[in-house]
Design brief:
The chain has about 400 residues and is an alpha/beta fold. The chain is about 45% helix and about 15% strand. The longest helix has 20 residues, at about 285-305.
Length: about 400
């Protein structure tokens, strides 16, 4: 039998042990965490929608009308009017012919990838893709070829040397680096080499593109360019669940083949109703994205002037590169002592030697909130200075 206790201890010794923190009250910049108020800079609530009163009002009304539970899978008796309306709304929002509503982004990626590729097929996956994409590739039983992050030349060489059914899968915005995939070039390569392109835009939906329609829409790429678009609703949209959008033929195929859609209970109808309300707000409240852009610019300028190493990201995901696991934990704890919550991200979520603080900004942050973060980073700069002096 495996020594599970020894494995846990090894994680502790390596600075990789993870601990859940308990949050009370609504998700917003000022959180109550383990009974203590903290100003959070680690949420994916990019537009500040998670605690929007209109969404709570709509969800409460929908629960009064339709109850809470989904009660059954979509293919039994769980596919409610509210789910159908949301799918139509998502298709319109993304400029696609059709859409399916999944329970989570993880389930969407696993179900879609495993349905669209199988034994004898080949999947090409960006080396920094999310764990849900990686697991979907494994579940498919297809051959998986990982190409260097964002390297379209390497991908083209792989595509040229591969026959049969081919699937290219990428994040739109990469969750730990904050950079954006070269989607236009990927679309061109997939057309040239007859590969099906799947884009998971979990961190772009709501934030990027016209009216928040995502990184694919920002480039003006159509359904023909990106046939399969996946997105989550618990980040920029502020509710829960996920979706896949694309041609009606493929959506019908997924209804028949995507196991994570077929064999799970449908999400509560109230969540679908609240999501429709959120999409309306996301489309029309451009001021949220404009404020977010100002926050991102001010953060990058301030952190860079202090000597922090940032990554080339124009999204709300702004990693501060540290490298050492223990040093990342030390910087995170020092900020928490100052009332700031910024999570240290360590392997295997990121590659070995690339531990970091993953700063995420929200339209719900005020400029004064950002200034508190910059002041805290200034106060704590000596932690990294000491490490850099040791290296020298």
């Amino acid at each position: 039998m495996r020594d599970f206790a020894a494995e846990l201890e090894q994680r502790r010794q390596s600075g990789l042990y993870r601990v859940r923190r308990q949050v009370s009250g609504p998700q917003q910049p000022l959180l109550v965490s383990d009974g203590r108020p903290l100003l959070s800079f680690c949420s994916n609530d990019y537009l500040g929608m998670a605690s929007h009163p209109e969404l709570s009002r709509v969800a409460a009304g929908a629960m009064q009308a339709n109850g809470l539970g989904g009660a059954a899978s979509h293919l039994i008796c769980g596919h409610h009017d509210a789910h159908h309306q949301l799918e139509q709304r998502l298709a319109s929002f993304t400029g696609r012919s059709s859409a399916l509503f999944f329970s989570t982004g993880y389930m969407a990626n696993m179900g879609v990838i495993a349905a669209l590729a199988g034994r004898g097929d080949t999947i090409f996956s960006d080396r920094l893709n999310h764990a849900s994409i990686i697991d979907g590739c494994i579940l498919s039983r297809a051959r998986v070829r990982r190409y260097p992050h964002g390297d379209t030349e390497a991908l083209e060489a792989m595509l040229k040397s591969t026959d049969g059914h081919k699937l290219v899968v990428t994040d739109g915005v990469f969750s730990m680096d904050g950079d954006i995939a070269p989607l236009a070039e990927l679309a061109r390569l997939c057309r040239r080499h007859e590969a099906l392109l799947v884009v998971d835009d979990a961190h772009g939906i709501g934030v990027l593109g016209p009216q928040g329609r995502g990184s694919v829409a920002e480039l003006g790429l159509s359904e023909e360019d990106v046939p399969v678009l996946i997105g989550t609703l618990g980040k920029g949209i502020g509710t829960s669940g996920a979706f896949v959008a694309g041609p009606e033929l493929l959506m019908d195929y997924l209804v028949q083949k995507a196991r994570t859609y077929i064999y799970t209970t449908a999400m509560p109808p109230a969540i679908a109703s609240a999501t429709c309300a959120s999409l309306d707000l996301v489309e029309h409240e451009q001021h949220r994205r404009e404020h977010l852009v100002k926050l991102i610019s001010a953060f990058r300028q301030g952190a860079t002037e202090m000597g922090y190493e940032l990554m080339p990201s124009r999204t709300p995901i702004q990693p501060i590169m540290v490298g050492d696991n223990w040093m990342a934990l030390a910087l995170s704890r020092a900020l928490e002592e100052r009332g700031l919550l910024v999570t240290a991200i360590r392997p295997p979520t990121v590659p070995e030697g690339e531990a970091r603080l993953r700063v995420t900004l929200s339209a719900a942050h005020a400029m004064d909130d950002l200034q508190q973060l910059l002041d805290g980073l200034s106060d704590c700069r000596h932690i990294l200075n000491a490490r850099e002096e040791q290296v020298v």
